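Hello Y.,

Per our agreement to keep a running log of every chain we model this quarter, I'm adding this entry. I've kept the format consistent with earlier entries: sequence first, then predicted structure.
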Amino acid sequence: RQQTEQAQPASTPAAAPSTRPSGFVDEWSNFANYAPVETWKSHRQGVTALSLSNDGETLYSVSQDSSLKIYSLGEGKQLRSNNISQLALSSCVLSRDQKYVAIGSWDNNIYLYSNDYGRVVSTVQAHDDTVSCLALRDQLLVSGSWDTSFKVWQLTPSGMSHDPIIELSCLDSAVRTVHLNMEAQLALCGSDDGMLAVADIR
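Predicted structure for the entry above:
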């Protein structure tokens, strides 16, 4: 008696166990659905840098139109607008106590803007060419420039030192970005030609 074997369906491989914790929500899966909460057409030319207050309520912006603008995100409106320089502004960083905004400019200067007084309280001719970038940690401010140097400055309760405490010119092209580590012990910079530099500033 001939027996006919019935084909058995191929078994489906078991799904790999998920490595995600229970209750995990993949927020990036909805990224395409995100939309700006607020938008402003405020500057006349390109925005070059932004800084946000610690409480996330106040936004600072600088632009190639040479202005600093301050916005209240909670109220959804612009609070202040100040023309800082005759040339474009490149960068801005907010001090830890949020009393000052340090601003870099194409006119080679660093401007220290006081939130309390609503104006620039200190101007330092910092470099021989455009101040391209800034980084701030505690009382130390690092600036980078198209003149291939980066410098470290001291912030004081009354403003900013007019002479750098450290000056380094170890690169051969314009400095585009600078950074300070959390302990404010290492200053880092990157230049146009792909070079990186690290300096111990302790």
